[in-house]
Design brief:
The complex is a heterodimer of chains A (288) and B (342).
Chain A: H1 3-34, H2 41-59, H3 63-86, H4 95-116, E1 131-134, E2 137-140, H5 141-163, H6 165-175, H7 177-182, H8 187-209, H9 221-233, H10 239-259, H11 264-279
Antiparallel strand pairs in A: 1-2
Helix pairs in contact in A: 1-5, 1-8, 1-9, 1-10, 2-3, 2-4, 2-8, 2-9, 3-8, 5-6, 5-8, 6-8, 9-10, 9-11, 10-11
Chain B: H1 10-14, H2 21-36, H3 43-66, H4 77-94, H5 98-122, H6 128-145, E1 157-158, H7 175-198, H8 200-210, H9 212-217, H10 222-248, E2 250-251, H11 253-257, H12 259-272, H13 279-297, H14 304-319, H15 323-341
Antiparallel strand pairs in B: 1-2
Classes of the chains: A mainly alpha (288), B mainly alpha (342).
Chain lengths: 288, 342
């Protein structure tokens, strides 16, 4: 087999996977803490893409710089959604929140289609054309930047959860909501913070992918599905696991594209997904 | 299902309300009149209501599983698409009646649903995980269909026009013919739903939906009930897929298996009320009406109907979780209470 092609596919898959990973991190956080399967996650990713597009159009700053602005946007949207739409339904079981996030998904996609139309938009980074090589394979610098930023975001989020009061509070809620409440924690506030952070991850993922794919109202669906797969692989609720899961899917896709024609590589991803749901719902590694 | 009449005090508890038979007769008469109304309308509106009724049937099929059992299947595009492809392939490639293709589709869809659910129950994939699980199966079929030469890859399968075609080929020179087929299918799907709901299987499902561990402890065979329900639900959905492919004379991977199809099917039922016979019909009619109205009055914004739909779902989750049909039931209850007093 062509050595260059193997390298290209595997490392290319790794780069893609980092994007899946950072998107999955948000999903895993929200599921782990609020126990919500957030179907609106893809819509948040989409908003991140369009936010970067609009800001880039307006300021012509580099999209990778604007990704940090997208984090702020995500925090705001996530907080508002939790406070305004989800908080009242938290006690009624999982069906209500699932429906709300489904409705949000449909509504946000519709709004994006109404505002921006269905023509694809593109965002050019100043790095768009620059390449570097690893051995015989060539890669765009921008992919490496995406990888670095995705890792940085995940590490930052992990640090926040482990070492700050906010993070300790969120982890307390995820372990035992009632006990957290009895300890005097503001559960509603912490859930809002969780959703804000989850949406921030989605916005960030969207912002990073804005330079890589044409932006259309349906552009985030693939990323949504992949982040679900990644989050399950990592063990829904496990931040680091979700990121590793995302990277793994990217690599599986890359390797799959070596052997399989067309889009069949994605078939393998879903096969792996179903296998995990059935046989290892706790994810790649058992949690202590 | 044959021992329906023997014993069991449970069903009374589950469904205490008994409709007066006069009400049912009047209701059916009104529905039939409404169903025949579009026959007098334009070709355009006939087409719209044909599709709306096909999807009402499909959603009723979904509701057998999604409403009665408490499962949240989010991958019914799998069964819809199987029905569509089966009927199209059998007709286009083998020159056999699409009705036969629909039966083939039903069998394949039921078999797949059975397998999926056996695995899911055995390995305890439930709740939101089940939703993602079913969605993943539909995605796999989408990818498979867009890569198989036999199924025309992303181009899909065209259903050819036939010279001197008749009802046996599901092609009608008069569009009212297909409309009546759609009416028949929607009615059949609602009858099957009602039969399941009122059968011992329906009582078991109701028990599982309410409290699964207790149901299991009381001797309900959870695995068997759920697998049967999913298989039946899939078969009913496959019929609709077959009819749809024959109606638009075309099927491709996105029309058949896209995530949005799965969501569309589930949303119509949830919007109308997934545990009520008339729910999916109401939901489907409401959704089609909204789509048509927004297209008529907000021509410039083709996504407006989706926005309305999304907001409706959010409102639903907050204020009327039992859907449009649930509102009706509530109103009826208020009304009958008042008439009791008189």
């Amino acid at each position: 087999m062509d050595w260059r092609l193997v390298l290209q596919s595997v490392i290319g898959g790794l780069f893609n996977g980092s994007l899946y990973g950072v998107a999955a991190v948000g999903l895993a956080l929200v599921f782990g803490v609020a126990k919500i399967v957030n179907l609106a996650h893809g819509a948040f990713i989409l908003l991140g893409m369009y936010l970067v597009y609009v800001l880039h159009d307006w300021t012509s700053l580099d999209p990778f710089l604007l990704a940090f602005a997208a984090i702020l946007g995500g925090l705001a949207v996530g907080w508002l959604v939790q406070r305004g739409l989800l908080a009242r339904l938290m006690a009624t079981g999982q069906d209500g929140p699932l429906l709300v996030t489904l409705g949000l998904w449909i509504a946000i996609e519709a709004v994006c289609a109404m505002v921006f139309g269905s023509n694809p938009k593109t965002v050019e980074s100043s790095l768009s054309d620059a390449t570097f090589s690893i051995g015989p394979a060539n890669f765009y610098w921008s992919r490496l930047v995406v990888l670095a930023l995705a890792v940085a975001f995940t590490v930052g989020l992990h640090w926040l959860l482990q070492h700050t009061d906010l993070g300790r509070g969120i982890r307390a809620v995820s372990q035992d909501t009632t006990a957290a409440q009895l300890m005097g924690l503001s559960v509603g506030g912490l859930l809002a913070a969780t959703m804000a952070l989850g949406a921030a991850a989605a916005f960030f993922a969207g912002a990073l992918s804005a330079t890589l794919v044409p932006i259309t109202p349906g552009a985030a669906t693939n990323l949504l599905l992949m982040s679900f797969v990644a989050a399950v692989l990592g063990g829904l609720g496990n931040i680091k696991g979700a990121f590793v899961g995302g990277v793994l899917i990217g690599v599986v896709e890359g390797v799959g594209s070596l052997f399989l024609p067309g889009t069949m590589k994605v078939f393998i991803v879903f096969l792996v997904f179903i296998g995990f749901l059935l046989f290892r719902p706790e994810g790649l590694r058992r949690r202590a | 299902m044959t021992t329906q009449a023997t014993t069991s005090p449970a069903p009374r508890r589950v469904r205490p309300r008994r409709r007066p038979s006069l009400g049912i007769i009047v209701g059916i008469a009104v529905l039939a009149a409404l169903a025949l109304a579009p026959l007098t309308g334009s070709r355009h509106s006939l087409g719209i209501w044909t599709v709306a009724l096909i999807f009402a049937g499909v959603s009723s099929g979904w509701a057998i599983a999604g409403g009665l059992s408490g499962l949240i299947p989010l991958g019914h595009a799998a069964f819809f698409g199987i029905g569509g492809y089966a009927s199209a392939v059998v007709f286009a490639k083998y020159d056999l009646s699409p009705w036969l293709g629909i039966v083939v589709g039903m069998v394949i869809a039921a078999a797949l649903a059975w397998l999926m659910t056996v695995l899911a129950v055995r390995f305890k994939v439930r709740g939101p995980y089940f939703a993602l699980y079913t969605l993943a199966w539909a995605e796999m079929l989408r990818i498979l269909a867009s890569n198989l030469d036999y199924l025309g890859k992303t181009n899909g399968v065209l259903v050819p026009y036939k010279v001197d075609a008749g009802p046996a080929d599901l092609q009608f020179s008069d569009p009212r013919g297909f409309y009546l087929v759609a009416v028949g299918y929607a009615a059949l799907a609602m009858i099957v739903f009602l039969l399941v709901k009122r059968s011992p299987l329906g009582w078991r499902l109701s028990a599982i939906r309410g409290d699964e561990p207790t149901a299991a402890a009381s001797g309900v065979d959870v695995a068997r009930s759920l697998t049967r329900t999913m298989a039946l639900s899939a078969a009913m959905t496959a019929i609709g897929g077959g009819l749809y492919a024959q109606y638009i004379q075309y099927i491709d991977p996105e029309l058949a298996f896209n995530v949005s199809v799965s969501i569309d099917i589930a949303v119509r039922a949830i919007l109308g009320g997934a545990v009520l016979v008339l729910g999916p019909l109401l939901g489907s009619v409401a959704m089609t009406s909204v789509t048509e109205l927004t297209q008529k009055y907000m021509d410039a914004l083709p996504s407006a109907s989706l926005l309305v739909l999304g907001l409706a779902i959010i409102a639903l989750a907050h204020w009327f979780p039992t859907g449009i049909g649930g509102l009706g039931v509530r109103l009826k209850r208020i009304w009958s209470r008042r008439s009791d007093r008189v």
